[in-house]
């Protein structure tokens, strides 16, 4: 593990602020505390969980999410969400995501399935907080409005400190949070860890006629349940994971569902063919060419349909509206940078860091590794290269991906991406479907290299890799049934039983 050799060090304790109490923020809080740092987590919602804390509200005044950041309703979770990753791969290294034993009440009853619903993840994160005593470090209903370098006294050098400005908010029963009359509070911290997630700020396409189309338009960020679309004709722009999920959610409720893809040929997989055969009200269309003022949606092949609603399932943009670094950290075409190893901005390291920026990664395993590295660098247990070396490494990394044909907007998509495997990587990234982006190399490239280089976390076990590979085969075959198949090998069955036995050791947190 880099930076850990040599004589014993006098470890430093830092006063650290973590922005966000979702999966990444909780990973950061736990690791910072373990290393002896004083931690304050600021969370704008009324509970921990981030996106996994379901919120039925939407912002009716901005269903597209087109207003300047930040969005007024943070959650993008729709009611029917089930995991697309097996729970066996979604736990912290020492607190596995075994089925909860909740009998009801807060968060509802437990969901023991391999691919449970979103409430099971929320319960797991609450149990994680309880098991490691994190709640006393979390300030709920606290929105961070600005993070900037604190002024330095004359003649004082060293690492910058950070002024964090926050205000109290309350979750209303209406359509968005209400800010309290209390004035903005400012505190100074030695370090700030940004862990606010990247599934809140909608990314919208540019389509002719969008601004003039007077019928209902929304981003999937504002979708919750299918009932408002009963009997309507709905067009879904994008057929990634959320597009496919929402299309199936609408089938049988909407009169017609038209799912669009950049390439109909590429989208017509065996799984898609089965979906179309199973649902007569579901149609696959090419990309949308334009929206007409009379409600007609015209597709790239010249065909059209009169629609009642258009839902944009077009992904999310990285957004840090509270962060003021004087231009030292920017977001350009969805590349956050420069970030050394997707974590540290060279010019501001180690006092500013990010957890959870990579996409298509094993969570929370990678978040835990990032947080552990940050905590150890802040304490002095580990060290970073000089800023110029970190910046040079970032530039070389970006150039390698560009040579491999990886678009800038996929800079942080690290699962299944190896710039040395040009054709394979580009084909996978072009699909923009997270499950399809995984590969046999998924476990062997950037994530594993990062974890092995900077932390002492254990590798993902072989039987878990086998589950993933089986999942990839199943999802390509049948999108509607892949979560509920029972086709484990005997090795996986026995390994799962041993894994489930771990629940006894976590009983104190899950009862």
Automatic annotation (TrEMBL):
Its EC number is 1.-.-.-. Keywords: FAD, Flavoprotein, Monooxygenase, NADP, Oxidoreductase. It comes from the Eukaryota. Its cofactor is FAD. InterPro entries: FAD/NAD-bd_sf (IPR036188), Flavin_mOase (IPR000960), Flavin_mOase-like (IPR020946), FMO-like (IPR050346). The keyword Oxidoreductase applies. GO terms for molecular function: flavin adenine dinucleotide binding; N,N-dimethylaniline monooxygenase activity; NADP binding. Catalyzes the conversion of methylthioalkyl glucosinolates of any chain length into methylsulfinylalkyl glucosinolates. Belongs to the FMO family. This is Flavin-containing monooxygenase.
